[in-house]
Amino acid sequence: xxxxxxxxxxxxxxxxxxxxxxxxxxxxxxxxxxxxxxxxxxxxxxxxxxxxxxxxxxxxxxxxxxxxxxxxxxxxxxxxxxxxxxxxxxxxxxxxxxx
Length: 99
Fold this sequence. Notes:
Number of strands: 8
Radius of gyration: 13 Å
Structural class: mainly beta
Distance between the termini: 36 Å
Helix content: under 10%
Oligomer: single chain
Strand content: over 45%
Shape: globular
Largest sheet: 6 strands, antiparallel
Mean pLDDT: 94
């Protein structure tokens, strides 16, 4: 049996001109969601951004958000705390701003 992760997972990627964050689907029901970040998160190097990293959104539970029986994207604010593994497998905690 596949379970939802404890926190929502997003894949962060991009280049020197943009940083994108896409939701990682884990099981049905789930949702597709992609946002553009205002800037590259601190501690995320340009090389890591080009390769992409998996991040957890700290304040958002892993199961989908349902409103009136419909699954909706849970990122309803413009700022969130995330964590991700950086170079040498160090875990970083930082904030992101969504455009």
